[in-house]
Batch of 2 targets.
Target 1
Amino acid sequence: MLNQNEKIKHVKQYVIFGATGWFGLNTINYLMHLRKCSHDIEIIAVSRKKQILSVENGSIETVDYQDLENLSIKGPIVFNYAYLTKDKVDENSTEDYIFKNINLSVYISSYLNKWQPKGVCYISSGAVYKSLPLGKQTLDEYPYGTLKFYDESFFLNHAKTNDYKIIIPRVFAVSGAYMNKRNSYALGNMVDQALRNKDIEIKAKSYVYRSYLAIETIIETCLFWLWDDTEEKNLVFDACGSKRFEIEELAKVILQVLDKKQLRIIRDLNKKETPDLYDGNYKVIDKLIRLYNVKSQSIEDQIQKSRY
């Protein structure tokens, strides 16, 4: 790992919006590791209501929105994970979904105005590519990806106006500990089936292609860039893995890694259906990983870390 001690010294406070989610818990765990290494940093985990969050490197009590008003915060690095995820689209009307997410963004930006952050990490999604100008989707047809794209623009403009650094990874397929809604993710679902000693059933009728990147790799890479004295003030890039897997190939690796080779893979494949390809451009994340000497995780390591 690149020696980051001097850079960490310049940032004492780290704020995590959306602390209870998958990215939030992994970020807390990473920052607690830094704190264990004698770094004098304050971790402020924000959630709607106070609760204790436990991760590998310790436990932390979250701060609710009301108490956040009373904290003295100046020049932090902020992780913005607060967003209604794709599964919430079906639980809300389109109008409510848009309204709630816009309110969240405006609310968080009001704190950024007040705190004058040194940097912000905003997690976006590869889903924005369905909504870019060349795409055919609209806000009504595809609210999640379209709103993510609007949110990117909102925070990029806010960062430019208020002169802070911002990094925006467009996340595709990720792996790692503290995965919530495991049944909604192919990797988590297949790992769980194998751990229950059940044959892995793949429900997708078409070929499905994904490239996995460890969630820790995304967090660490973004932090290094925010600590770094780069000339760039903003960076938007695809966060995806270096190798593309067809979902059945991934299932075979899972059975091997978990030592469940006696289990079968059950699938009703229709080769005539349009393949499901959800993947990005690895060039920028690869460059950052090499630049900051971030440890890459093999797919075998990623599967092991996705067990819990």
Note: The first strand starts at residue 13 and ends at 17.
Target 2
Amino acid sequence: MKDYTSSLWGNKGVRITVIALLAAMAAVSLIQGIRNAAEFSQDFQWDAVKAFTMRINPYDESLDPSGVLDAYGFEDVYLQMEANQFPSLLVLLIPYTFLAPLTARYIWIVSNLVFTAGIIVLLGKTFLKTAKRDVFAAFMLLMIAGTPYRNQLGVGQHSLFAFFFFLLAVWFDEKEDRRVSFAGTVVCLFICYFKYTLTVPLCLYFIYKRRYARIAVSVLLHIMLTVISAWWLNDSVINMIIKPLKVSGALAGEGCLDFGVVLNGSKAAYVLAFAVLAVLFVLAFRLGENNENDYISVLTLWSLIITYHRIYDFFIIVIVLAFFLTKERSIYYKAGYGAVLAAVFFVLRLFSESPGSKLATGILYYVFTLAVTTTVIKEGVKSKTECKGAV
């Protein structure tokens, strides 16, 4: 099949038209996202963090409310408490609790806008640094124009926060000054685990880069904070792990395209997720040295489906553009990626995430993910073998 995409994009008029259209759509999406965030931001978890600072167990109040928090009127602003983050992660949001509930919401909106700008800058300095300027601009505008980003901003979710610090960790990791690189990477990894269902799979990238000490120290910091949190809440360390998982476990079958949805919340979804993670872990040691872009593309695609994720987390699939920067890909890959982007960013919203639209989008997504993964394994393992042979 002839590839018409390059020739079309090579037309200056087409490029200007597409970018102008995406800019207009991004502006509308951004404004609506801010409006929604100002009214809702129900996933911010300010209430859970505030309860934590008051030495009231937010997990117990989420699982079986005692009414002790009713007098504070938290639900007037944040509806219902759902403390599904580990205590060492809730600690990261404590600075926001020094503000009144509504003020904190507005500051969180501003924070997410800053994280958005940071994500764009960091993508341009890391995985997408070889993309042409017009292509990069188009993809960043597409990200903001899509439903996932708008919903992410509107519900006050934490993926922008976590993804920004993951990219910042990647940026620090590439610094020449070893002390600055180590310290910066550790701190950013420590923070990026806030949305662990998203960033822990992505952090396999640091296993691929053989940054074992950096990962170990960042995890150790969370272990230490978990122990301190258990003392602070007068609970056991085990409960500091089990209780957040109980809160989040109630949502296991309510995602968008993930294994939990496909398997109707069955425990088999966890087994399958573990198996995929194991394969991705092994793959980190099997790929050649110059497969960063391909590996992060694979990690991104799988990270969104192996555990619970709603549509608002899918804005990160713009990073899969990196797969197309390593070498020239056939029209089939480009068409597949385009179809996935269109379905996830616009079609699902157009059909209100109806069962039919989710089924069609899911099929597209899984087929594309498997195709990219298979190609990366074949090309990456082959390149490593050839490098060994050359030595």
Note: The mean pLDDT is 92.
